[in-house]
Amino acid sequence: MQSENGFYGQYGGSYIPEILYSSQQQILHAFEEAKNDPEFLAELNKQWQQFSGRPTPLTFCANLTEHFGGAQIYLKREDLNHSGAHKMNNVIGQGLLVKRMGKKRVIAETGAGQHGIATALVAARLGLECTIYMGAKDIERQYPNVFWMKQLGATVVPVTTGAQTLRDALDEALRDWSSSHEESHYLIGTSCGCAPFPEMVAFFQSVIGNEVREQSVAQFGQFPDRLYACVGGGSNACGLFLPFLDDKEVEMVGVEAGGKGLELGEHSIRLSHNLGQPGIAQGFATMFLQDNAGQLQETHSIAAGLDYVGVSPIIAHLAETGRIKMTYAMDDDVVAACTLLLKKEGIIPALESSHALAGAFKDAPNLPKDAKIVINLSGRGDKDIFNVAKAVEDETFPQFLTDYLASYPTTQNKGDKA
């Protein structure tokens, strides 16, 4: 979806300090040239195929379809990308752009850690220095991803300001970019930020929807009747939805994080229920959760990747114009959807993706039996083992952790053994 001078209706734009103007213009021109350069696109496709493992399959879920007795349910398996999430699609694209611009360092921020992992992987492959900003609270929730980022050679910087989540990590990444833009590229992981980032990220992620167009026709002879995607920043939703924008018969549903309740601070609902307000922050205009004075508010989700205070300007515009329908899923419904997919189909979903599952599972029983729905499984759930174990109140997991920690070779018990 192409912007009009960086805007999608009233959302988008480029609200950045003057010092970043030349870098923003460099990215804009480099992207415009690259997306029309056959050699760049050929290298991008090669890396997607040979490094990330594309195309990802479209999986029919026979057991879930029988369980609900309504629409036929398919999953777009972005969880099978290298690193276990759709994030790789965009990171490979921007990584190649960094090489094209001649820069040596990438900066990124991450919530669930999947974008951080993907950035660290590609930085290692392309020989780039890498710094990842991550909220201290998110580090606690997603430490296995932090471990791998460090092993890949990235510097992970804990952010201890504010709510210590993605919003605060993004602020710190912007500060770094402002002081290092001549040698660094801010590798934004979702379709937010100043122009051209929303359009650029959506362009690289559209490989998801383009593959679904081909695969759905090949597998069941038509486009899907309805598409579902979770919406935090909105990159996987843009990737699935945008290639179908002109196909009016295809309905699109975005699912936000309902969290623990509708009180401010307990959820991350910006678009559905009209809980967000138009505002300008972090380089662009969109719907933010904010108070009457325009101060950004704290958010919550059981899925660290969905608790961003704003949303893609592309998604905000499409929701405002009615092209996509927005809804939300509560934490408890998300965990239930996650465990249902585990037990019925043998697939371990990320908690972010489980929001899309919850939204689709609510609708599926009420749709005709010949309807086809596609849910974007944006990531796999290995990283969520601690949160899921706690949510399902697994009785054996705490004892496993206790025993494992007791056997861990710390400096103290090494001394004891000596």
Question: How are the secondary structure elements laid out?
Answer:
Blueprint: E1 7-8, E2 11-12, H1 21-34, H2 38-52, E3 58-60, H3 62-68, E4 72-77, H4 87-101, E5 105-110, H5 114-126, E6 129-135, H6 136-141, H7 143-151, E7 155-159, H8 166-180, E8 184-186, H9 197-205, H10 207-220, E9 226-230, H11 235-241, E10 251-259, E11 277-281, E12 284-288, H12 313-320, E13 325-330, H13 331-345, H14 351-363, E14 372-377, H15 385-391, H16 397-407, H17 411-417
Parallel strand pairs: 4-14, 5-6, 5-8, 6-7, 9-10, 9-14, 10-13
Antiparallel strand pairs: 1-2, 3-4, 11-12
Task: Provide structural commentary.
The chain has 418 residues and is of the alpha/beta class. The chain has helices at residues 21-34, 38-52, 62-68, 87-101, 114-126, 136-141, 143-151, 166-180, 197-205, 207-220, 235-241, 313-320, 331-345, 351-363, 385-391, 397-407, 411-417; strands at residues 7-8, 11-12, 58-60, 72-77, 105-110, 129-135, 155-159, 184-186, 226-230, 251-259, 277-281, 284-288, 325-330, 372-377. The chain has a six-stranded mixed sheet with strand order 3-4-14-9-10-13, sandwiched between helices. A four-stranded parallel sheet has the order 7-6-5-8, with helices on both faces. The protein has a two-stranded antiparallel sheet with strand order 1-2. Helix 2 (38-52) packs across helix 4 and helix 9 crosses helix 11. It starts with 6 loop residues before the first strand and ends with a helix. The model has no long low-confidence stretch (mean pLDDT 94).
